[in-house]
Amino acid sequence: MSSDDRPEAAEPHDVGLLSPVSILVADAVSDAAVVERMVAAELALLRAYVAEGHAPASVGAAAEAVSVAIELSALARDAVPGGNPVIPLVALLRRQVAAVDDDAAGWVHRGATSQDILDTALMLLCRDVAAAIEQQLARAIAATAALAERHRDDPAAARTLTQHAVPTTLGLKAALWTRGLVRARAELARVAATLPAQLGGAGGTLAAIAERIGVDAALELPRAYARELGLAAPASVWHTDRAPVTAIGAALAGVVSTAGVLASDVAQLARTEVGEASPASGGGSSTMPQKANPVDAVLVRSAALRAPSLLATLQLAAGLAVDERPDGAWHAEWPTLQELLRLTLGTAERTAALAEGLVLHPERARANLDATAGAILSERLAIHLTPLIGRERFDALVADAAGARCAPASPRCPRQPNSISTRSSTRAATSAWPDA
């Protein structure tokens, strides 16, 4: 058959069409990325046996020399009978290692179980994706910190329950975004540093390993395995103790929710009638060419709506991880954790783009601040007038004044001075940031 007669390769069924928040980073958390870590977990076990003196050096050499080629669709189909992709992967890997060193092939997967390899692979993926998320968050932090410094003395109306409350500054709002991102990034880094390898054997007892190399050596092997992978040494087997999964899930969801606050604020401030913020470039409409939609903010908000349910699934699965190996709860974690990783990485990248292109408009913030003709200062006035005329009389006077306040565009609306307390609050917030 000539090259012209061959059918074109079919596109993948799912290319992320309906998840634009994560499409630009999808490859980092793809099935291919998972399989790459599964192979790494298997080969690291070979190296751990060599490092501890239980396997000949030729086994380690074979692990370094083998070039693993895997057809993902075939692997996925072959995973169905056994219920997980490690089973067909091990058979494939043994054949490919045997092509390099037939004796080394006998050491592939020795003493391990499918959950050991897949759990370890997912921890590797979580560690690597967390590092990429941290990089994107660093971009966002630098951008929001710059906004806080630039607008630290620009007055604006603080809103509580959607209504004007007291004066604040645009800088303080940006400072709070920054503090939230710094905190979420630090928590993700802390959890990522604790992600453990998994090596317990069929029932979590290391029995098959101990039978071959002795009990003491078997107890040491998981630590050697973790060192080969750059993961934390497991305190014990965690086949049904899913704390590592729920911890990284919570840290990822925390990043998304923190970014969601920033995005929600921007979406509100970018409303036409508010006009206190605008992205550097907005997305258009299919029918209304005058629109400049805050698309990045919208996409991040969509992620903030999806992430909590993913975390809830991980928590639910953790609570149903029974016996020594879970029957379905473990399986439910795989796509859930993969999607949460993909969603968080996409959120971090879109948040960085949003923050770097964000423009705040002090003149619009000031005009909105003036909309209540000074009523926004009622809290400050209460401090001084209530002791003189009583709270009931003061509240009545403010209610009367608020009811008769002028329209924002009226020349009778006075410009209110910026308060010293508002400026000092912004400076206090920005001066206390930890290093990003």
TrEMBL record:
| Limits of the Fumarate lyase N-terminal domain | 101-306
Q: Which UniProt keywords apply?
A: Lyase
Query: Which residue ranges does UniProt annotate as crossing the membrane?
Result: none
Whether Lyase counts among this entry's keywords is yes
Segments of this protein annotated with the region Disordered = 407-436
What PROSITE patterns does UniProt report for this protein, alphabetically? FUMARATE_LYASES (PS00163)
Question: Which intervals carry biased composition (Low complexity)?
Answer: 421-436
- Which PANTHER family does this one have? ADENYLOSUCCINATE LYASE (PTHR43172), ADENYLOSUCCINATE LYASE C-TERMINAL DOMAIN-CONTAINING PROTEIN (PTHR43172:SF2)
- Family stated for the protein in its record: Belongs to the class-II fumarase/aspartase family.
Q: What is this protein called?
A: 3-carboxy-cis,cis-muconate cycloisomerase
Organism source for this protein?
Homoserinibacter gongjuensis
